[in-house]
Design brief:
The chain is an alpha+beta fold. It contains one helix and nine strands; from the N terminus they run αβββββββββ. A hairpin with a 2-residue loop joins β6 and β7.
């Protein structure tokens, strides 16, 4: 019985891995935009579950990793394009933040944000996102 249990666990693990890869492949090389008129924020999804986010308002680009689970997307922001210009402990460096977004067809929007506390634990922020901050898949 123990032998069969291990085989079942291995098969389920393989199926889950293949499913996760297939889902992430759907986002790879895609670009999602929010238009401000003549300016736009965008999220580009790259290989190896990496993403790039550009903010039109700040002119800043941040980079991180993503994980897709069904229609829920987690972004983990890890660094900014200007970080190298500031000392490691500077408050001006890009903070590590996690975001959860929902994807529905060709639309995507932010719904949650987590920040690291003083003990290096993720806590859910009370930050609220505008319902109008809706990204559309760039075709």
């Amino acid at each position: 019985m123990n032998k069969y249990f291990r085989v079942i666990v291995i098969v389920i693990s393989i199926c889950w891995s293949v499913s996760s890869l297939a889902q992430n492949k759907d986002l790879t090389n895609s670009k999602w935009v929010f238009n401000f008129g003549k300016c736009q924020d965008y999220i580009k999804f790259k290989k190896q579950n990496q993403y790039e986010f550009f903010s039109c308002e700040t002119g800043d680009t941040v980079f991180g990793f993503y994980k897709l689970n069904g229609n829920s997307l987690i972004l983990k922001q890890v660094k900014g394009v200007y970080d190298k210009e500031f000392p490691i402990k500077s408050q001006h460096r890009t903070p590590q933040i996690k975001f959860r977004l929902i994807i529905n067809n060709d639309s995507m929007w932010f719904i949650e944000r987590w920040e690291l506390n003083m003990n290096n634990k993720w806590i859910k922020s009370d930050f609220t996102f505008s319902k109008n901050y809706l990204f559309k898949k760039d075709k």
